[in-house]
Amino acid sequence: MAMLSHGGRVRTRNEDYVCCAEELGLAVLADGMGGHAGGAVASRLAVEAWMGCMEYVVAHGVASVGDLRMAVAAANQSVYEEALRDPLLRHMGTTLAGIWLSPVRACMLACHVGDSRIYRWRNEVFECLTRDHSVLREQSDAGMIDPLAPGSAALRGLLTRAVGVAACVEADVAGFPLQDGDIYLLCSDGLTDMLPDSEIADVLDALGGSPRLAAEHLVDLANDRGGVDNVSVVIVSSRHEGRLGTELG
Questions:
Q1: N or C: less crowded end of the chain, CB within 10 Å?
Q2: pLDDT tens for each residue of the chain, 249 residues long
Q3: How far apart are CA 162 and CA 173, in angstroms?
Q4: DSSP for 115-165?
Q5: What is the DSSP letter of 171?
Q6: Distance CA 90, CA 175 (A)
Q7: Burial state string for 67-84 with b = 16 or more CB within 10 A and e = fewer than 16
Q8: How far is the CA of 75 from the CAs of 11, 33, 47, 245, in angstroms?
């Protein structure tokens, strides 16, 4: 696993937060939102709560879909209660995308809220495993708008679900079979708004065996294209064994 978070070329604050526990097969990413310092606080609290919950579960047994839902609920409670305590943090929230991989059971469990995404590169096929919780995606799915039409980009950042903005939140959780050679990518929209899927896939194909290099290259490309938002990635590869990455700030 390797992870990297960068503030981008425009924003003065990085409101993304990422964390991995490679030995437990856990990775999580959050993209915060909110006035003042709220976004940065929300993403950190959500990731810490989710990871703390999942680390306990995996260290004591095998995780389930219910455990991932419980971890998202813990993240939501942590953010929501902090916003109630501090008036300066009112209305803060965050996306969240997290995975647990079990090579022994040949499965991967994934959860997400918001528009941070989880992708898989397998056998020359690049696939998004998540569905954005955004106004643009919902109106596009309903046939109400062409996502490529002028003006549709303004709807991309309007989320229909986020962690911490209400007392409860519904996460999408699913399980997927693992295969040798799989490469997984968790990313904030600072990457996908700058790079097309085809270019991201090319990077994973070329560098996926070295997650650190792939993460650095993707972030550099996003910044080269303008870096208008914070950009964060987590890459998990089964092409190599051993520890391949640690956090870069």
A1: C
A2: 999 999 999 999 999 999 999 999 999 999 999 866 799 999 999 999 999 999 999 999 999 999 999 999 999 999 999 999 999 999 999 999 999 999 889 999 999 999 999 999 999 999 999 999 988 666 666 555 655 554 555 556 689 999 999 999 999 999 999 999 999 999 999 999 999 999 999 999 999 999 999 999 999 999 999 999 999 999 999 875 433 333 332
A3: 15
A4: S-EEEEEETTEEEE-----BHHHHHHHTTS--TTSTTGGGGTT-BS--BTS
A5: P
A6: 34
A7: bbebbbbbbbbbbbebbe
A8: 25, 15, 7, 25
Domains, the chain, in order of start with CATH, read: 2-6+15-240 (3.60.40.10)
In this structure, are residues 26 and 58 in contact, taking their beta carbons and an 8 Å threshold? yes
Amino acid in the structure at residue 221: L
Under 8 Å between Cβ of 97 and 111: yes
Show the tokens assigned to 121.
């590169």
Whether 77 contacts 55, CB under 8 Å: no
Distance CA 97, CA 186 (A): 7
How far apart (Å, rounded) are the C-alpha atoms in residues 247 and 92?
Answer: 25
| Whole-number Å distance between alpha carbons of 186 and 117 | 6
Q: Are 211 and 4 in contact (CB under 8 A)?
A: no
